[in-house]
Amino acid sequence: MSVICKVNEADLGRIAAKISSLFGDPTRLYIHQRLAAYLDPYIPKETGTLAQTNRATPKYLEYSQPYAHYQYTGIVYGPNIPIKDEAGNVVGWFSTPKKHPTGRFLTYSHEVNQNAGPLWDVRAMAEHSKDFAGDIQRYIAARFNGGGV
Q1: End-to-end CA separation in angstroms for the chain
Q2: What is the pLDDT of residues 11-34, one digit of tens each?
């Protein structure tokens, strides 16, 4: 015994429109917001400014602090000229506006964030890609089923 199912053109049109709406700006914004949440435990933190000032939009997730690129790549850029006090102690650093990679790697403190390091998206997704995909799948399913999430 077999079962034959037919979908009429009007139904196909409604289904296609609903599926298309599932992948619009609200879904893409949700994806970038969830991505930020998964990346947060891997972003270097001293005060938390880098992670807290991210900007999620439907098109991208941006970390816009001036030092974000350096923290992400994990490579020291220079020249870095020490600023010393009267006793000769280094109290800070000065860098020229034009910087170049030095070939040295940054050292990340793990005091505030034990997973801190470079390429935080790659490392986060290596550990949590299935969780991340599951979040998105549940979100889309809820929207498809009228949850409107």
Answers
A1: 41
A2: 778 777 777 778 889 999 999 999
Prediction pTM value = 0.78
d(CA 67, CA 63): 9
**pLDDT band of 80, cuts 50, 70, 90:** confident
Q: Write down the number of H helices and E strands in the chain.
A: 5, 4
Residues near 135 by beta carbon (within 8 Å), at least 6 away in sequence: 34
Distances (CA, A) of 104 to 47, 72, 95, 138, 147: 24, 14, 15, 43, 50
Phi-psi bin for 54: left (phi > 0), alpha (psi -120 to 50), beta?
A: beta
Distance between CA atoms of residues 139 and 149, nearest Å: 7
Q: Are 41 and 47 in contact (CB under 8 A)?
A: no
Range list of H helices, the chain: 9-22, 25-39, 49-52, 68-73, 120-144
For the chain, domain boundaries: 9-144
Q: Which letter does DSSP use for residue 42 in this model? A: G
Which tokens hold the place of 134? Answer: 């599951």
In the block, residue with structure tokens 């390091």: 117
